[in-house]
Amino acid sequence: MSSAGRTVIVTGAASGIGLATARRFASDGAKVAIWDLNEEGARRAAAELSASGAKAIASRVDVASRAQIDAAVAHVHAELGPVQILVNNAGITDFHSFMEMTEEIWDRVMTINLKSVLFCTQAVLPDMLAANWGRIINISSSSAQTGSARMTAYAASKGGVIAFTKSLAQELAASGITVNNVPPGFVDTPMLRNEGVAGMGMSVDSVAARSPMGRAGRPENIAAACAFLASDDADYITGHTLSVNGGRYSN
């Protein structure tokens, strides 16, 4: 399942699932571009991967800005070459009750979680079309599959990611480019501990204890799914939702 020699962009890769995914691709021999709004974290992650012998670069990118995305793609081209794999991972959570939801909150969640997938994918797709090969992997959410109270905007945005994945996969199916998505379940990440648990008013351990496996997932579980979907072994899989959730939702 090696991605050796291929160029991959991972958005939101300074920590959590994105960082684990960048590490996995680096260990598989890929050249990795780490994009994050947290420039210090992105540079720290790239330095870590470079120290391990991988080829890695970092860019501060606001995925809500097409101009910043285009500039970062140009940087990838200059340093690593054409893009063959894209992992759309950057996203934000939200825990407002429905009647507290404002247009500003809704628009921010939709822009960062869904519109960014449009922007990033359009920016790299010409490279993949020229090569007749590419892998687009979108990180969605099990909340979009099950529904989740006080997360209407978040779940709706991630449901959009799933529908986006299925539709683009059909459009590109004959081009050598696959488009799939991974909806994580309850994964122990800094964002979950800093925002998610507080928003739910619960602890990581209490939520994890109620899952079928009785434990939280690890970012590396999602990274492994991404590595598989990016591999040549997965060349006949497209439009697929690969749920990695410890049994929270079966599809």
Any descriptors?
13% strand; Rossmann fold; six-stranded parallel sheet; alpha/beta
CATH homologous superfamily (4th level) name:
NAD(P)-binding Rossmann-like Domain
- Please compute the radius of gyration using only Cα atoms: 17 Å
Number of strands: 6
Give the total of domains.
1
In CATH's first tier, which class applies? Alpha Beta
Order of helices and strands: EHEHEHEHEHHEHHH
Strand order of the largest sheet: 3-2-1-4-5-6
**Average pLDDT, all residues:** 94
CATH fold field value? Rossmann fold
Helical proportion? Answer: 40-55%
- Biggest sheet statistics: 6 strands, parallel
How many helical elements? 9
Structure write-up:
With 251 residues, the chain is of the alpha/beta class. The chain has a single domain (7-186, 220-234), classed as Rossmann fold (3-Layer(aba) Sandwich), CATH 3.40.50.720. The chain has helices at 16-27, 39-51, 66-79, 103-131, 142-146, 152-172, 190-200, 204-209, 219-229, and strands at residues 7-11, 31-36, 56-60, 85-88, 134-139, 177-182.
Summarize this, please?
The chain has 251 residues and is α/β, with parallel strands linked by helices.
Layout: helices, strands, pairs:
Elements (H helix, E strand, L loop, with lengths): L6 E5 L4 H12 L3 E6 L2 H13 L4 E5 L5 H14 L5 E4 L14 H29 L2 E6 L2 H5 L5 H21 L4 E6 L7 H11 L3 H6 L9 H11 L22
Parallel strand pairs: 1-2, 1-4, 2-3, 4-5, 5-6
Helix pairs in contact: 1-9, 3-4, 4-6
